[in-house]
Design brief:
70% helix; mainly alpha
Length: 161
């Protein structure tokens, strides 16, 4: 079975970026219920996808055999992921409360929640940076291709004479 973590990690990043951008646009009209609910549900989906990536990463990490140089980097990636995940869960819960319990439409409240989303995005980007280092510097999760045969070249795909 293929590891899920490399597949799942891209969804929270792209969806959170979309949520923060829609949230910024909704600051112009904090009373617009469609914008408010769209942002709320985007954050909820981001939180769910982040939880899936987090737990798939924990599951996958327990099967890794690490070099002494990779182990601290895995720990750093985990610490950033831990913070990003739980901050995102809190932001999503706050968005749900603001949209459906308190139904607050104040611009300053919307701005504060946007800042929280921006903070979560920064945490997630740091997590992604450290995860990228694990792949590109340590080769974690990357199977090597056998080094045999000839170098690849662009095939001649022109019309046959």
């Amino acid at each position: 079975m293929r590891p899920l973590h490399p597949i799942l990690v891209h969804f929270p990043i792209s969806l959170l970026l979309a949520a923060v951008m829609v949230d910024l646009a909704s600051l112009r009209r904090p009373t617009n219920p469609v914008m408010r609910e769209t942002v709320t549900w985007l954050y909820c989906v981001v939180a769910a996808m982040t939880l899936a990536a987090y737990f798939s990463g924990l599951s996958g990490a327990t099967t890794l055999r690490l070099s002494p140089t990779a182990s601290p980097d895995v720990t750093t990636h985990f610490v950033w992921a831990d913070w990003a995940t739980w901050v995102l869960v809190c932001v999503a819960a706050l968005r749900l409360a603001l949209s459906y319990i308190w139904q607050t439409t104040g611009r300053w409240v919307a701005a504060m929640v946007w800042v929280a989303g921006l903070f979560a995005l920064a945490l997630l980007l740091m997590t992604a940076t450290h995860g990228g280092r694990l792949v590109f510097e340590h080769g974690l999760g990357v199977g090597s291709a056998p080094i045999t045969g000839q170098r690849w070249t662009i095939p001649d795909v022109g019309p046959d004479p």
